[in-house]
Design a protein that fits this description.
The chain is of the alpha+beta class. Among the domains are: 5-26 and 83-166, Ku70, Chain: A, Domain 2; 179-200 and 246-259, no CATH class. The protein contains 5 helices and 9 strands; from the N terminus they run ββββαββαβββααα. The protein has helices at 76-82, 119-132, 185-198, 210-223, 245-280; strands at residues 5-11, 14-22, 62-67, 70-74, 89-97, 106-114, 134-142, 145-154, 157-163. The strands form 2 sheets. A 7-stranded mixed barrel has the order 1-2-6-9-8-7-5.
């Protein structure tokens, strides 16, 4: 994949030439809007709300709505005046502990790939960040837009994550949340036991987008002129309106124990076969 940005990563007087490359890929199914009658693609038009007429691009300006229906018009010169001078260097301003950063700040990850002859300094910074458990905080300009960025270690890679600025986060005080005193000790103990029963090592491959999978099954079936066959969703139990936490927790624990037992039975024959082979050997 082509580099999104080329420049250098600087901490102190150390300067590391790097390239920014994507670390995630979109996996969305795209659809076109069509005219039902002849399946011709439908174009979007920019229509004036006042007269209902289409507006050409050369008559469109950008405006900031400071009151309902009142705007300040911004020109190209205004945007140029506000622009930050471009830089090809990511200056690490601070190193902070990762656990001190609210996860809501992190947005989009990218790989920082070392340029030729920068491998040694790249590895040095990577191992220093790894051993200290730190995250480098800096700023980067991509396509004339300034972003806050966090630099952390993932495996053998330095990963730069675009971060949100503090004014982009909604403060939790804007909502109402239940108090800790609402939790009864016996309910907490059972909930903790249930979490323990469901605990597994994280395996991202087991979590799939079922909606996307269903859409692709329907699309493939329609391409072949067939009727799609999808699994019927399980019927949910009727809501009685009464929340009996203890009974639901007990039922969940029993259900979890049954699944654990079944899983252990499935794994047992494989362990027996391995043990028998060792004895034979």
């Amino acid at each position: 994949m082509a580099a999104i940005w080329k420049g250098s990563l600087a901490f102190g007087l150390v300067n590391i030439p790097v390239e920014l490359r994507t670390a995630v890929r979109a996996d969305h199914i795209s659809f076109r809007l069509l005219h039902e009658e002849d399946l011709s693609p439908v174009k979007y038009e920019r229509v004036c709300q006042a007269d209902g007429e289409a507006v050409p691009w050369n008559e469109i300006v950008k405006g900031y709505e400071y009151e309902k229906g009142k705007y300040v018009v911004m020109t190209d010169e205004d945007f140029k005046a506000a622009a930050i001078e471009g830089s090809k260097t990511i200056d690490i301003i601070d190193f902070v502990k990762e656990e001190e950063i609210d996860p809501r700040y992190f947005e989009t990850p990218y790989y920082l790939v070392p340029a030729k002859n920068a491998e040694k300094s790249y590895a040095l910074l990577r191992e220093a960040i790894r051993s200290t458990g730190a995250v480098g905080i800096g700023k980067i300009i991509i396509r004339q837009t300034q972003h806050l960025a966090g630099i952390k270690v993932v495996g053998d890679a330095l990963v730069l994550e675009i971060m949100r600025f503090s004014n982009e986060l909604v403060n939790e005080s804007e909502y109402t949340f239940p108090d800790r005193d609402d939790v009864r000790p016996q309910e907490l103990a059972m909930a903790e036991q249930l979490i323990g029963n469901l605990a597994e090592p994280f395996d991202p491959s087991k979590y799939t987008d079922d909606y996307r999978s269903n859409l692709m099954k329907i699309i493939r079936a329609k391409m072949k002129g067939k009727k799609p066959k999808l699994e019927e969703p399980e019927e949910e139990a009727p809501d009685t309106g009464v929340l009996d936490l203890m009974s639901k927790l007990r039922a969940s624990l029993e259900q979890g124990s049954g699944k654990k037992t079944a899983k252990a039975k499935r794994a047992a024959p494989a362990r027996t076969r391995r043990t028998s082979k060792r004895k034979t050997a």
